[in-house]
Recover the amino acids of this structure.
């Protein structure tokens, strides 16, 4: 399904490179927000409905339902996650939002969501 | 609180969220342990110290008591990876809410599967957050 995806590097007030992605009507999820090794520092997302999970892989183009996600968090209307340490991604960085199930990720989110993710990143 | 001179509101100490340590465990394996049997707890910070191992580990947190968790089958609510020889510390100022209870274990796979323990035990710290 086509998404309205916008992305592009810019800089925050600390001069740290940021990758940014915004997806509207997010109901068929898979988003590669970055490619190659990077270090995830923070993540902010807005999801219009709850009862979904946010899964994160240290992979480029993971296969939903078979690749085990490296991070899973329950979603909230608005959520900020800070990686004080341990956010180094060796292979890539991919996200999805799904209905339930940490590996099975059984199906699309409960409703079409507006997902906004901003990750600030350091070096590899 | 209303400032009698200016008429504006300032937060009181009692209205601020409080954090406290819920779990500080330096012997975490694939065996499920109970962090809290209290319903409605929220976690603001999760630390996984995997410096003792040469392979990655994944912490699984379940919204259930130990008796209701089947290793490798029960779907975890939260999964946090710690790279080999490294420590992961993630924080959420608004907290991750658990409705029933909090149980935890570590294993050698991400997502739902995984029943094997790492070669050496892992240290885990969980910080709860309480909102006034």
């Amino acid at each position: 399904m086509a998404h309205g995806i916008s992305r592009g590097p810019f800089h925050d007030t600390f001069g740290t490179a940021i990758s940014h992605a915004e997806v509207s009507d997010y109901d068929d999820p898979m988003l590669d927000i970055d490619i190659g090794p990077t270090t995830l520092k923070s993540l902010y997302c807005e999801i219009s409905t709850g009862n979904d999970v946010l899964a994160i892989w240290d992979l480029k183009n993971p296969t939903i339902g078979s690749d085990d996600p490296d991070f899973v968090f329950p979603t909230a209307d608005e959520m900020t996650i800070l990686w004080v340490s341990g956010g180094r991604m060796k292979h890539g960085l991919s996200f999805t939002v799904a209905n339930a199930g940490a590996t099975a990720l059984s199906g699309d989110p409960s409703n079409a969501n507006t997902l906004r993710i901003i990750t600030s990143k350091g070096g590899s | 609180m209303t400032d009698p001179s200016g008429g504006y509101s300032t937060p009181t100490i009692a209205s601020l969220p409080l954090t406290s340590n819920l779990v500080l465990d330096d012997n975490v394996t694939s065996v499920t342990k109970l962090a809290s049997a209290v319903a409605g707890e929220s976690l603001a910070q999760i630390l996984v110290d995997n410096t003792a191992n040469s392979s990655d580990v994944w912490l699984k947190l379940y919204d259930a008591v130990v008796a209701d968790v089947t290793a490798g089958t029960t779907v975890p609510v939260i999964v946090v990876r710690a790279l080999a020889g490294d420590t992961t510390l993630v924080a959420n100022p608004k907290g991750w809410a658990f409705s029933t209870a909090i149980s935890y274990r570590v294993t050698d796979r991400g997502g739902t599967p995984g029943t094997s323990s790492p070669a050496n035990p892992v240290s885990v710290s969980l910080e709860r957050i309480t909102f006034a």
